[in-house]
């Protein structure tokens, strides 16, 4: 029997491991199973080159929990270790000194990735153990060995018996870690970290992984059904994806994976952190925001790359050349895929626009390279539904009627065609095209695009009366006398005196236009919309009162009837009701004002 002290450049490495890795203590399963996979893959390689000539047999890795004896055992049938190899790989913890290790990485909170980088994966077993045993038999002609350590630098190493090649790691679980003796806890960790490892992983004889997931195969080997089935495997209760992108790059960096475009409902119940990062099929994290462009964080799927540095801080990760290249490559692949669908099957592209439009607009705002490509396939849907226009197509359709005095194309849009129906109708009656802009990002998108597109201006359909949507027009002749106009203005002013943010304007509009039309400042409303979407409920803009213009159509015949009313009180109530109806159409009549409107309406109907 050999006894000795583990050779490290500090008195005791184990408190360091426990201290800096404690928050990630479940990682020990990932590290030990990954080591078992490495041992198995090495044996396959030796067999493939003719060095190992024996029978490979079953190469499963097994994980077993013995609650009674308080042990967890991880076993493989890989290359195993001789006594000399145990002494080399286990007893000599080869890194540049514990002090340097601590000083360099103590503030990074990234212990789960540090241990693998420094070859300390095996030692993660001591995070949950009072004692750890290794029983190993090499594929070479050498006796089996048993190694034991109780978490101090002292160990013992002796010959033993093992029926076949391979390695058992036996962990005697400490009192603080008894949760890991629960089958459900261990299973959940295995399913999280080992779900797609390339060697069969069995937990109490039940295989829990898929060793050949779809992303490890060539696109030519997969059918549409294969991609859809893999999506179900990843997200069992989700709706089918719209389409997907298969990543497969081996130069200048290694990257594989499949990214899916999910169906996004109009309620925008969106979930981020649905892309999982793997390294050689070992799960790493679902925090991929530095690797995947921000505007694609709502995608689902898997990316796998051994070239992404996992042992470094977030700030370094952002600056890593491979990360930047991978980020740019994913952007390009997504843009190319959308462009391909647009060019080859525009009908299908338009059918998916309800779901993909959000990605495209967000990408155009945040990524200049994506913007350049997306300009070709950004489409805007007519409020009537089913007709889509690119910018060039919309310009060709509307430039005769919707070019203002400054030479700008005025794109008239609706954020809610149902609620803004009367305004949409008024605009369409003048021959204008009105498009939908109803996603969460549209207020910010419009602001950005107005700066990037030449000679284009967006105007919301309810930002002004239809006559003024393209250019402000002079007053048309009014059928009211000067005396009638003055009297009507006095009534409106009196009724709205408690609402100083409402400006009343009299215009001679068409007789069939609405008697009162309420509009809100395009700029102020857009700023308030952006503040609301970004969660800045207490921002300066959000606190400002709405700037409301109430346009009275002096040519509507109802005013002739109101002015003939002998009852001054009824005259006042009729005017107030017209004003309230216009406010109600813009959802600006609430609370006590809405209640008063209802009571007043009932009272007027009694006469």
From TrEMBL:
Keywords: ATP-binding, Chaperone, Nucleotide-binding
CDD domains xrefs: HATPase_Hsp90-like
Gene responsible for this protein: htpG
NCBIfam families: PRK05218.1
Similarity comment: Belongs to the heat shock protein 90 family.
Pfam families assigned to the protein according to its UniProt record, in alphabetical order: HATPase_c_3 (PF13589), HSP90 (PF00183)
The keyword Secreted belongs to this UniProt entry's keyword annotation: no
InterPro entries, sorted: HATPase_C_sf, HSP90_C, Hsp90_fam, Hsp90_N, Ribosomal_Su5_D2-typ_SF
Protein name: Molecular chaperone HtpG
Superkingdom of source: Bacteria
């Amino acid at each position: 029997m050999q006894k000795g002290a583990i050779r490290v450049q500090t008195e005791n490495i184990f408190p360091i491991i426990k201290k800096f890795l404690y928050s990630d203590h479940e990682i020990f399963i990932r590290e030990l199973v990954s080591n078992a996979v490495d041992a198995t893959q090495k044996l396959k390689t030796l067999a493939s080159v003719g060095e190992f000539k024996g029978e490979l047999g079953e190469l499963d890795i097994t994980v077993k929990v013995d609650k009674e004896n308080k042990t967890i055992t991880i076993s493989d049938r890989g290359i195993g270790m001789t006594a000399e190899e145990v002494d080399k790989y286990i007893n000599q913890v080869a890194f540049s000194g514990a002090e340097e290790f601590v000083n360099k990485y103590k503030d990074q909170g990234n212990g789960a990735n540090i241990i693998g980088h420094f070859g300390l994966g095996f030692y993660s077993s001591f995070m949950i153990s009072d004692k750890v045993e290794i029983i190993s038999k090499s594929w070479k002609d050498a006796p089996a060995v048993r190694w034991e350590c109780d978490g101090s630098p002292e160990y013992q190493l002796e010959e033993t018996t093992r029926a076949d090649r391979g390695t058992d790691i036996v962990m005697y679980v400490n009192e603080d870690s008894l949760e890991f003796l629960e089958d459900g806890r261990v299973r959940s960790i295995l399913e999280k970290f080992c779900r797609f490892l390339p060697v069969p992983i069995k937990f109490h004889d039940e295989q829990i992984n898929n060793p050949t997931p779809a992303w490890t195969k060539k696109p030519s080997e997969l059918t549409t059904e294969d991609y859809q089935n893999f999506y179900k495997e990843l997200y069992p209760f989700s709706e089918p994806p719209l389409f997907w992108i298969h990543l497969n790059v081996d130069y200048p960096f290694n990257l594989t994976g499949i990214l899916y475009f999910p169906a996004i409902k109009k309620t925008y119940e969106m979930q981020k952190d649905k892309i999982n990062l793997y390294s050689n099929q070992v799960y790493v994290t679902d925090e991929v925001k530095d690797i995947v462009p921000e505007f694609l964080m709502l995608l689902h799927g898997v990316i796998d790359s051994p070239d992404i540095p996992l042992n470094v801080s977030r700030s370094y990760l952002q600056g890593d050349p491979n990360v930047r290249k991978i980020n740019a490559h994913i952007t390009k692949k997504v843009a190319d895929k959308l462009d391909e669908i647009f060019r080859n099957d525009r009908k299908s592209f338009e059918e998916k626009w309800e779901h993909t439009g959000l990605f495209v607009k967000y990408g155009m705002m945040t990524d200049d390279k994506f913007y350049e490509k997306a300009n070709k396939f950004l489409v805007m849907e007519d409020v009537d539904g089913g007709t889509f226009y690119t910018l060039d197509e919309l310009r060709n359709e509307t430039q005769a009627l919707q070019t203002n005095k400054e030479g700008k194309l005025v794109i008239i849009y609706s954020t809610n065609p149902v609620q803004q129906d009367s305004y949409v109708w008024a605009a369409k009656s003048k021959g204008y095209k009105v498009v939908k802009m109803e996603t969460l990002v549209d207020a910010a998108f419009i602001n950005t695009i107005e700066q990037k597109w030449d000679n284009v201006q967006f105007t919301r359909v309810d930002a002004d009366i239809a006559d003024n949507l393209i250019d402000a027009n002079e007053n048309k002749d009014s059928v009211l006398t000067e005396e009638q106009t003055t009297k009507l203005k006095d009534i409106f002013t009196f009724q709205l005196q408690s609402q100083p943010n409402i400006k009343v304007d009299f215009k001679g509009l068409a007789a069939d236009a609405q008697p009162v039309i309420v509009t809100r400042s395009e700029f102020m409303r857009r700023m308030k919309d952006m503040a609301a979407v970004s969660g800045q409920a207490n921002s300066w803009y959000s606190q400002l009162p709405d700037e409301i213009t109430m346009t009275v159509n002096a040519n509507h015949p109802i005013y002739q009837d109101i002015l003939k009313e002998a009852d001054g009180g009824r005259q006042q109530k009729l005017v107030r009701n017209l004003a309230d109806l216009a406010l109600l159409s813009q959802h600006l009549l609430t609370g006590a004002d809405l209640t008063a409107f209802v009571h007043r309406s009932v009272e007027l109907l009694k006469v």
